[in-house]
Design a protein that fits this description.
2 copies of one chain form a homodimer. Chain A is mainly beta. Chain A is built from 4 helices and 11 strands. In chain A, strands 1, 2, 3, 4, 5, 6, 7, 8, 9, 10 and 11 form an 11-stranded antiparallel sheet that branches. In chain A, a hairpin with a 6-residue loop joins strand 4 and strand 5 (103-115).
Chain lengths: 278, 278
C-alpha cells in the first residue's frame, strides 16, 4: 500500500458560501476525514485505537489555499505522515484537481495520541511496535510555511461572546475542532468576504471545551499586517478596531471559554487568519 | 432513465453528534443534494434553470426517521417527484441501507419555482413544455404523514435571539434553509439529546432572511404534547416553560427576523419538532 492516500470529494452546494466556493471549515472537515481514512486503512486509525483506549487529538492545523474548490467541483485530498516523534506526528495534505494535475493548496497538521481514560499523552511508538514509522513519507514536498505558533499580545480586544450548542459538539462530546474556525470566520461580515478571501489559517488547540461553555473571541491585528505584509504577531500588536474588519491582512484570534460556573476565561485555542484582497 | 434516483452517502464522523448518529441538519443537506442531482440529471435542475433566470425554492420540508444513520454508516437516499402543479411540486425521499433492504426513514418536500430577477412564482409547466410531468411517480409509497402546516399560537415564548453570520449564508446569499433547523435544534441542551431523539420535523419557509438579520426563536409546547401523544399545535398551546425543554413531545418553533434597522419581527419560518424518548 502506498504511503500516501488520496480521497476524492465534491464541493457540495450546501457546503459553499455566497461566492460559490467551498467554506474553509468544510475543507478542514474533509481533510480530517482524509486523515481518518488514511490512518484507518493503515491500521493506526481512531477505530483501532479506541479498542486500546487511545485516540488521536488534533493539536495544530494550518491550511493555505491558492484557490478554493468551486461549487460542485470535484477535488482530491492526498495525505501522508511527514514525521513521527514520541508524542507527536506531523501529517500533511495536498488539495488538487481529481487527476492531480492542478494544485489548489496544502495543509499541515500536528497530532498527539492520548489515553481516553486518563487524557494523558501516550508514546506513539509503543503502539503496534511503532508500526506507524513504516508509513513515514519525508520526501513528498509540502511547500507552505510550518504551522505558526500564533502568539497573541495582551492588546487583543474582545469582539464577541457566544454560547456553545448541541450542533457545536462532536462525537467525543467536545466542541468540534473545526467549529472554532467557523466561529472565528463568522466575526467578519459578508461584505468583507465579498472583497477578500481567506488565503491561510493556522490554528493551535490548547484545551477542550464543552456544550454550555461560553466562548469569547479576542482579536488583534499585528502591526503592519493590514497591508498584507505578513508580519508575525507579537506583543506590539494592536487591538482590532471596528475599521480593521474591512481590511485584508492578518487577524489573530484568541478564544477563551467560560465554564458555566466559571468567572475567569481559560484559553481553548488561538488562530491566525490571513486574508488577501480578491 | 428511472423516474427515481438513488444516491449514496456516508455519515461522516464530523457530521455526527455526540450519540454517534448523523445530525438531522446534515441529513437534510444530503436530501437537498439528492434533489439537486435527481433534477439535474433529468434537465430540470437549478443549473439549467439558472440559464433561464429561474430557480427552485424550498417551501416546506418534513423528515421522519425510525433510525438515524450511525457514524461511518453508508446509506442511500432515493428521491422522486410525487406530483406537480402549476406553482408547486411535491418531492419525496426514502433513506435506506445502501442495498435498499432496510428503511431508515422518509422525507417530503414542497418546492416552488421563481424568477430570480422578480422573485415571483413561475408556471412550472411553462418550462420545457412541462417536461417535468414525464418524471412524476405517483405510485412509489411515502408512508409518513403529509407535511404539517405548523400552526403556532400567540402564547409562544421568546427563548433565544441570535445574530446571523457568514457561515449561515448559502450560495444564493440567503440564510441556508437547513440552518434554521440547526438553530432550532440548538435550543435544546445536550442532556435533552442524551435522553430523547428527534423523530420528525416539519418546517415551513415563509420569507427569506440575510446575513446581519437577527433571528428570534419563539417556542410553544401544544397542550398534551409533552407526553408524546402527537396532539396538533393550535391556539390553545402553552408557552414553553424552562422545564419543558427536558421532556419529549412536540415543540413548535416560530423564527422571526429583525432586519438591521427594523423594529418589528417578521416571520421567516415555522417548524414543528417531535421528540421521542430513547
Amino acid at each position: 500500500m502506498d504511503k500516501r492516500g488520496t480521497y476524492e470529494f465534491r464541493a457540495e452546494p450546501f457546503h459553499c458560501d455566497f461566492t460559490h466556493r467551498l467554506f474553509m471549515g468544510h475543507l478542514g472537515n474533509y481533510m480530517l476525514n482524509a486523515a481518518d481514512y488514511h490512518s484507518s486503512e493503515r491500521h493506526f486509525g481512531m477505530g483501532y485505537l479506541s479498542t486500546i483506549h487511545k485516540t488521536w487529538v488534533l493539536s495544530r492545523l494550518a491550511v493555505e489555499m491558492e484557490e478554493m474548490p468551486r461549487e460542485n467541483e470535484r477535488f482530491g485530498i492526498t495525505t501522508w505522515v511527514e514525521s513521527a516523534m514520541k508524542y507527536f506526528t506531523c501529517r500533511n495534505f495536498r488539495v488538487a484537481s481529481p487527476d492531480g494535475s492542478r494544485t489548489l493548496g496544502y495543509g499541515r497538521s500536528v497530532w498527539a495520541m492520548i489515553d481516553t481514560r486518563s487524557r494523558h499523552p501516550q508514546d506513539i511508538f509503543a503502539v503496534n511496535d511503532g508500526s506507524i514509522t513504516e508509513w513515514i513519507d519525508a520526501g513528498t514536498p509540502c511547500p507552505i510555511d510550518k504551522i505558526s505558533r500564533v502568539k497573541i499580545g495582551d492588546g487583543a480586544r474582545l469582539v464577541r461572546t457566544i454560547d456553545t450548542c448541541y450542533s457545536d459538539v462532536d462525537v467525543n462530546g467536545h466542541i468540534n475542532s473545526v467549529k472554532y474556525l467557523e466561529h472565528a470566520l463568522d466575526l467578519f461580515p459578508l461584505a468583507f468576504y465579498a472583497a477578500n478571501r481567506l488565503k491561510r489559517f493556522d490554528i493551535a488547540y490548547v484545551a477542550e471545551s464543552h456544550q454550555g461553555d461560553r466562548l469569547s473571541f479576542y482579536v488583534e491585528t499585528p502591526e503592519g499586517a493590514a497591508d498584507g505584509s505578513g508580519v508575525e504577531a507579537g506583543d506590539g500588536g494592536n487591538a482590532a478596531g471596528e475599521e480593521a474588519f474591512s481590511r485584508p491582512g492578518i487577524y489573530n484570534v484568541r478564544i477563551e471559554k467560560h465554564e458555566e460556573n466559571g468567572a475567569k476565561g481559560i484559553e481553548v485555542c488561538r488562530c491566525r487568519l490571513f486574508f488577501v484582497k480578491k
